[in-house]
Amino acid sequence: MLDKIKEFASEFFVTGDPLILGAQVSIGLSLVAIIFVLTFFKKWRWLWTEWLTSVDHKKIGIMYIIASILMLFRGGVDALLMRVQLAAPELEFLHAEHYNQIFTTHGVIMILFMAMPLMFGLFNIVVPLQIGARDVAFPFLNSLSFWMFFFGAMLFNVSFIIGGSPDAGWLAYPPLSELSGSPGLGQDFYIWGIQISGIGSLATGINFVVTILKMRAPGMKLMQMPMFVWSVLSSCVTIMFAFPILTVTLFLLFLDRYLGAHFFTLDGGGNPMMYINLIWMWGHPEVYIVILPAFGIFSEIVSTFSKKKLFGYKSMVFALMSISFFSFFTWAHHFFTMGSGANVNAFFALTTMLIAIPTGVKVFNWLFTMYRGRIKFTTPMMWTVAFIPCFVVGGMTGVLLSVAPADFQFHNSYFLIAHFHQVLIGGVVFGYFAGLYYWWPKMFGFRLHEGLGKWAFWFWNIGFYVCFMPQYALGLMGMTRRVNTYDFDMGWQPLNVISTVGAFLMGAAFIFQVWQIAHSIKFYKKEKDGDAWDGRTLEWSIPSPAPLYNFARLPQVTSQDDWWEEKQRIAAGEPAKPLAPLEPIHMPKNSGIPFIMSVCWFTAGFGFVWDWLWMAIPGLIGVAVCMLARSFSYDTDYYIPVDEIERTEAALRGTK
């Protein structure tokens, strides 16, 4: 009996690698510490009522952001481990299988479990406030979306210490991802972790499309929406069309592995190229899904800190929606070298070049907005200015890759690695950092320390260029992606050493950001009013942090920068808009069903990974029971009375 237990434990837990053992110990100690703190300070009820069951979009947004920062740490550590392995020829810091696992999890975590939740966090915090709404269209679904994402991410991440991580690459091409190439459990963790999280992402996309189209403040027309809201709309429309493709693709791969189907196996009549087409029909729109909201963030910041109306508003809207549309017609440029034929290559080369045009339009609009503006170089503005040259270089190298004959040289090389990191870090990460710094006072009522923020800024930027510029040269020298070692005579070591130094500089930048947050909390200095940056849009018209109901009175919007123009009118001596009388505010009640349902999804996914139907089937039954319970829930909302609104507003605004 004891021998069977030991055998099961050796299969269940990942053993034999000191790095993984260290991770297991640190995770165990962290869990013990969290449980101890919650128990010692008697915070379990607070955690359940205030956070785990909350349907408040602002709290959900904060939970998304916390999760994304944790995933940034995990994905960043993976990146540093890879750079250490590649710093010198024939290094044996990571064995080949462990290296493959790390570069697979690094890509998945950074795109799906870091960038996506950081994006959704900003959606939740900002969009309802910018459109003058009191919540999102479907608060219950919003909570379910977060917990589906969270437990999907946890299911994927637990593979690092239980069962084994996937090692077939972040897009899991067959036949490597089929049972013949990946007989272990890692690929099943990949399928179910992404599948569960992806359903939550699709629900978020639907929720925010409805919120933006149906819940804008009275008088706010589509062409009066803030540019960030337009970027969210374009991103969420893309999510609605792209993520069902991912769901179907992963389900077909699951059928191949679990039931012996042959959708993607040549020996059974399938075709792995079908998988590659399907995954990139999702994958390339996904790149634009995460970059479009960053464009909206930059638009808000440039306008605010240049003290000018955004230049070319209509052209910006057209550019955003054009990118959303054209993103579905570029996927085949990822396999120019796979024999699709000259006509197919020419079509996708042309569409890839076309999509660069609306992207360039936005860059010129930001530059013209700054032209002759009274620019204030705060931390958010510094990230925005740094983004422009970085993204321009990334965009130009993307156009180079779109030239099909040239791509035969660049394909699968470190030139490509440098390109997409230049776009995704220089665009997405820089953009979301800018957004975090910009809206942090709105979330928490205090600014982050500017001095430490600028140290982090310079370490991030210098480290980025030191890390990725040498990789363009390495690609042209013949270094291919996915290699875990190389020979001394290749001549790649000097540039790899430089690249590794840059990666550690970015790691130091992350430490500065953690220090910045801790320092700002310790030396808390509350903002005097809700308008931390002398902003232009509606979120700055209410106290910070915003009350539960956001707006005591729904704003009446008459122009694009309505709050800015209202301040200008008051400064000119004109009377403020008359205030409507307060009325009771309708709000949704908290619910524990989203959390419980997501735990059931996690249970079902874990059961399918291990082929434990005794666990998977009860998990699915639990999902069905939660859906049934929700359908019979009638006491789901309440009204905040006028006297409570008055007390809250008086306390927030510092009046009696």
TrEMBL record:
GO terms for biological process: aerobic respiration; electron transport coupled proton transport; respiratory electron transport chain. The chain crosses the membrane at residues 20-41, 62-82, 102-127, 139-162, 189-215, 227-255, 275-298, 310-332, 344-368, 380-404, 416-440, 452-474, 494-518, 592-610, 616-633. Keywords: Cell membrane, Copper, Electron transport, Heme, Hydrogen ion transport, Ion transport, Iron, Membrane, Metal-binding, Respiratory chain, Transmembrane, Transmembrane helix, Transport. Pathway: Energy metabolism; oxidative phosphorylation. It is found in: Cell membrane. GO terms for molecular function: cytochrome bo3 ubiquinol oxidase activity; cytochrome-c oxidase activity; heme binding; metal ion binding. GO terms for cellular component: plasma membrane. Its cofactor is Cu cation; ferriheme a. Pfam families: COX1. It catalyses: 2 a quinol + O2 = 2 a quinone + 2 H2O. Gene3D superfamilies: Cytochrome c oxidase-like, subunit I domain. Residues 42-558 form the Cytochrome oxidase subunit I profile domain. It is a multi-pass membrane protein. SUPFAM superfamilies: Cytochrome c oxidase subunit I-like (SSF81442). InterPro entries: Cyt_c_oxase-like_su1_dom, Cyt_c_oxase-like_su1_sf, Cyt_C_Oxase_1. CDD domains: Ubiquinol_Oxidase_I. Belongs to the heme-copper respiratory oxidase family. This is Quinol oxidase polypeptide I.
